[in-house]
Amino acid sequence: MVEVERTRYSETSEREKMRAMIKARKEKEKTDDTEKPEVICPECESRSLEHDYERAELVCADCGLVVDAEFVDEGPEWRAFDHDQRMKRSRVGAPMTYTIHDKGLSTMIDWRNRDSYGKSISSKNRAQLYRLRKWQRRIRVSNATERNLAFALSELDRMASALGLPRTVRETAAVVYRKAVDKNLIRGRSIEGVAAAALYAACRQCSVPRTLDEIGEVSRVSRKEIGRTYRFISRELSLKLMPTSPIDYVPRFCSGLQLKGEVQSKSVEILRQASEKELTSGRGPTGVAAAAIYIASILCGDRRTQREVADVAGVTEVTIRNRYKELAEELDIEIIL
Amino acid sequence: MTGYNLKIENVVASTKLAESFDLTKIEIEFEGAEYNKQKFPGLVYRVSDPKAAFLVFTSGKVVCTGAKNVNDVHTVIKNMAKKLNSIGVETVPNPDITVQNIVASADLHAVLNLNAIAIGLGLENIEYEPEQFPGLVYRIDEPKVVVLIFSSGKLVVTGGKSPEDCEQGVEVVRQQLDSMGLL
């Protein structure tokens, strides 16, 4: 009797579990639906809905139901009254960006002394316009916080330009810096230091890591300070960045040494094997990457000296020799010099 | 002790021996004492057997560093008080000695993959920047210690207030690594 009870009990619990699972799945589907705009006609369930931009209506092509009306046309401007407008076809200004302190959403008074009809403004009003322009410029930066932000962001941009970093990294760095400002992490630290640390973090987030030395070279603060600030903000903002992989450095170092793609893929292969054998744990990623490139360059018959590799990677020859010995021994790579 | 060669490397303790000290007088009387007001506001005095170093401040406070265990700290401070008395400096009879920090080293006897540990312990709890420092820094809340984990399997435990804290810290790390199968 007890046995039967027990089996029945387990059965009901099993069924309940199933029911819960189905419910959860249905709920998930529902949320998915709300996230995506509807692509099905609610009347005939046809999938062929058409945007009619002339009337700003979303129409079902099968039954003719108007699903949505007066929607916003996100396409380019289709009216044009002169040649200039026809070429531009734009309804908006420059895209919003975090790299400018007001996100690029500022108003500027044109430097030309012309009104909206294109007529030149009388000399009587010019002085007034000049003053207006001046105050418009001044008002862009309203207080000390904003002034500091503007300075930090220009510093970020300067460093990023010196390192030749792409747009995405600059945006990420600006976002990291803004987060740090919001959390009051700048207090007690130098603006330059936090900006450099934000740039370092952004490079790693975009998996185009730069070494601290490289960042330190273009910034006004020491490598040590940048590292310290980076550790602080990454902990406070919980950036959760993975330790950098030596593989991320390979393409850059290889092109710095003008090595062929063959050498590059060989180095990546060596590094894969090395990380499987736990040869990279607790060792500087640049040193390991440099040694792998050194080995690969020899194996591919396009030898670079340890000195050359060391210079590009920013490590010492001794580091390369040590790492190279470890790699060669553990991975059984025979090297004939 | 527990099979991990847990060894206390340094004990830092502080106490108050008097209301105030005349450091210039102590510098003259004690051999090897260093006192340079411009460089550091305290007097530095090293003793051997048991080996330790003292920082003596004008406020009467004394910091003892470099001792290898908690008992040494007590004997060394007692000796110091006696020595101060011998040159005619008054001291408090039973000073209240508080241990501020203990640094210990240990060995797990295993090669560790720090990358895997970093992910296993959760990236928000640890600090691992091989570019800056080869060790992994793990801050434990209970006991409140910081453990540096190295790929050779060696550990450094700091920030503990008692030898038990250090032992527990090592034990916590060992258990967590064991449960992740990384030992």
UniProtKB/TrEMBL annotation, chain B:
Q: Which GO terms describe its biological process?
A: DNA-templated transcription initiation
Ranges for the sequence repeats: 8-84
In the record, what terms sit under GO molecular function?
DNA binding; DNA-binding transcription factor activity
Q: What CDD domains does the record tag this protein with?
A: TBP_archaea
| Keyword Phosphoprotein belongs to the record | no
The UniProt entry, under InterPro entries, shows: TBP (IPR000814), TBP_archaea (IPR033711), TBP_CS (IPR030491), TBP_dom_sf (IPR012295)
Q: Which UniProt keywords apply?
A: DNA-binding, Repeat, Transcription, Transcription regulation
**Entry's Pfam families?**
TBP
In UniProt terms, what function does this protein have?
A: General factor that plays a role in the activation of archaeal genes transcribed by RNA polymerase. Binds specifically to the TATA box promoter element which lies close to the position of transcription initiation.
**Family designation:** Belongs to the TBP family.
User: What PANTHER family would the database entry show?
Assistant: TATA-BOX BINDING PROTEIN
Designated name of the protein: TATA-box-binding protein
